[in-house]
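For the sake of transparency, this paper describes our internal protein records without simplification. The record that follows is passed on verbatim for readers who wish to inspect the format:
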Amino acid sequence: MACLQLSKEVSKYKGEEEEECTLDGSVDYYGRPAIRAKSGRWVAGTIILVNQGLATLAFFGVGVNLVLFLTRVLQQDNAEAANNVSKWTGTVYIFSLVGAFLSDSYWGRYKTCAIFQGIFVIGLVGLSVATNLFLLRPKGCGTPEITCGSHSSWEIGLFYLSIYMIALGNGGYQPNIATFGADQFDEENMQEGRSKVSFFSYFYLALNLGSLFSNTILVFFEDKGLWALGFWSSAGSAFAALVLFLAGTSRYRHFKPSGNPLFRFCQVFAAAIKKWRVELTPGEENLFEADGGKDNSSNGARRILHTHEFKFLDKAAFITSRDFKTGLHNPWQLCPISQVEEVKCILRLLPIWLCTILYSVVFTQMASLFVEQGEAMTSKLSNFRIPPASMSSFDILSVATFIFLYRRVISPLVSRFRKTESKGLTELQRMGIGLVIAVMAMVAAGIVEIYRLKYAQKDCKHCSGSSSLSIFWQIPQYALVGASEVFMYVGQLEFFNAQTPDGLKSFGSALCMTSISLGNYVSSLIVTMVMKISTEDHMHGWIPGNLNHGHLDRFYFLLAGLTSLDLIAYIFCAKWYKSIKLESKYDDDSEKEKFEAY
């Protein structure tokens, strides 16, 4: 192997022992096979985790209070502000697909992360400058007591340019940084394979810890009108994240981009349709594979082994007499079977992915209806008023607690019960448990709402705190959502990273983000439909402006029912799903036995 030969040459001159290279095809910054001891692992992984925490702090330092900035500083009404924030949030997730495409196709994950983080920093600096110099006029405005004056069109334009640069930078960066972190661990090595599984849990924990700081400290400053300080803090955090990321350059492991996947997918479907009348013969001897079935690309990607689902697509790789006449060189007529299997992998993932969207509907309630419910409850602790939005801190604490419990308690117990050396519950099992806990969270929220209504003042004009029920009764529903995130979103990150082909890892992470995005849209659709139906015959509806006249509890129970149906569909999809099978990169059986013993 090239890596072994290289290490032998080095050892001749330096008197060192032969250095082991990674087995998953990863390379160093210069494109040489990555040496295990000098690259990746937890040194690089820790840098990426801290980078993620700082970047998340920066992003939520803007996003969590953006709706208040639009109403207090730019003088938009509630509906317009909410609509603009929804558009901005949706754009972030759309840009995640752009970042994943560029990463997998052309730039690679390191370059993509560096470029989009640079755009992210520029956007935050632009927002901070615009806010400090142009938008906060008169000085000290932006609070409930002091309104800001009007702004010129170019000042508004500068603001929107800045926040959409933030959306572009964060959206393009997010799906790649999780995958790039996972790249630092060789899953063909037992010890690093276990570390790779742990990395996704710690990654999600870093994300939540970053948002915890922004949801408490930065939100407090911005709520007091110190918008410029909050935005400059976010810009400083993003800049520190970028510097830290670049500082770890020499330690990272990389995978070479695999080219445009859209062309590869279209080639498979086109070739299969052209041969729709061809009858497939048993066996694989007539299925075309580039380079005689060895690694089929120069990017080091592992070959996907042949499977028997979606047999129609195998026709794209079936060699006919006409293919011999064209010299086996027309990719729109004949595709390698590994290329066909790449398409099959994505098709198998889609039903699982669709089942995660309704979970995201439950997750999005924390930023909307949970807050509105908390606003109508007693939120005073002594003389201090607890902001309803800050109750999401209990969600973050729950995430941290359950990540620890799963890694240290649940997973070892499951392995001991099964009497195997497995990593515990599979990703699909954890995602199913996440759906079960999500149902419990909606039931808990509905029960709390029943009691909130029982102790509410029906005839209030300003209904903030109109129920004598304490806001701390919301803790169980926040804690249950946090627990479900650990099983669903962490499992989802691991699942899509493990089950996507080597050339589409960032696309797998982008699927997680688009699930959240579509969850927002589906939630909005369900709310619209519920209000249209429940307001017939001049009724107040389930979710009126005054919640004391509505039935928010019924909406929560509706979501619990829909999630239960989604769970049933998910179980069928999970039982049907067949895992990706990759060709091992071991030299011989003795090396494999040594690895398994290790």
The mean pLDDT is 83.
